Amino acid sequence: MSELTANSMRGFGTNTAGGFDIAVLTQKANGEALVHKASSLSEIAQKERLFLISNNETPVISPIKHNKAKDKNDRPKRTINRKKIIFDDSFTYKGKNYRVNPAKSGLYVEILESIISQFQIAQSKWGRVFVLRFDLHMDIHRRDNSIITGFIKRAFQKLKRVYSFKDIGYAWAREQERSKKQHYHFVLFLDGDLIRHSSKINQIIKQAWEREGSNCYMPVIPRPFHFADNEEAVQDMLKRISYLAKPRGKGYRDKQVKDFNCSRMKALAKDHKSITVNKEKND
Question: First CA to last CA across the chain, in angstroms?
């Protein structure tokens, strides 16, 4: 503190309560502090300036309360999903009407369309389609879907080697409801002429999934497969696998992580023989 300031503050009252001592500076004082008894901060003199002096006592500082770090396993907030939802028990896609199961939460139209599209392409390829439903569970939460990418690569390589499949259609949905960890619903579309039963395929899938980690397991599903080779079987199958399109359980993920994905099988082009015949007729 300068000598001038020290001299101007002689006789200044001490604030024994701690904090700051207060003197009032005015224009009439010619720069000198007026001696006042130390008092608490006041808002009475609006045109006066306040001069604050620390009284050398260590102030008592309340500890800052920090929010508890978020547990990595806590359920993530649900992301906004702008997909269209229907609550009907039937759905028409490309002129074909299918029975579906909207339950209480309804069904996402975009997901239904993707699943049915891949099934229709499978029908055009094989006629008799083998449809397998299964679930994939884990004991820990994963922020992304890389575990599914690894599983698909391993399982499909084995299936193609054992059954000589040229194409494999599939769809999966990621869901997380009351649990802190997600699970996956899965459906496969396969050439039904190359398969007799699902037991061997289930074993291949189970082994591929469990190889992703000791915390991965595949629960048993009653009646896991359908041979979709007639209208009634197709309707029963679509009603069952429409479950993958339900909104409930979806959205609990990072924004860039997908709730749903499916294969990219393409419809067969007209065979070369048909094209040649049509050309000859035109000639």
Answer: 109
Reported as type and span, the H/E element at residue 110 is helix 109-126
- pLDDT > 70: percent of the chain: 66
Q: Which neighbouring-strand residues pair with 62?
A: none
pTM above 0.85, yes or no: no
Give the integer Cα–Cα distance in Å for 77 and 253: 7
Radius of gyration of the CA atoms of the chain, in A: 36
What does the chain come to in residues? Answer: 283
Tokens of 179: 């649990």
Q: What pLDDT does 100 receive?
A: 98
Residue 141 corresponds to which tokens in the numbers above?
């939460």
Phi-psi region of 236 (alpha: psi -120 to 50; beta: other; left: phi over 0): alpha
DSSP assigned state of 128: S
DSSP codes joined into one string, 227-263:
EE-SHHHHHHHHHHHGGGG-STT--BS-TTS-SEEE-
pLDDT band at 96 (very low <50, low <70, confident <90, very high): very high
The per-residue pLDDT for range 45-65, each reduced to its tens digit, is 444 454 444 455 554 444 444
What are the structure tokens assigned to 208, written together?
A: 């591929």
Residue indicated by tokens 């082009």: 269
Is the Cβ–Cβ distance between 107 and 115 less than 8 Å? no
Is there a contact between 141 and 207 (Cβ–Cβ < 8 Å)? no
The CA distance from 104 to 85, in Å, is 11
Q: Which of 179, 165, 185 is nearest to 243 (CA)?
A: 185
How far lies 80's CA from each of 98, 254, 259, in Å? 28, 11, 12
CA–CA dist 189, 213 (Å, integer): 26
Cα dihedral 268, 273, 274, 277 in deg (nearest 10)? 160
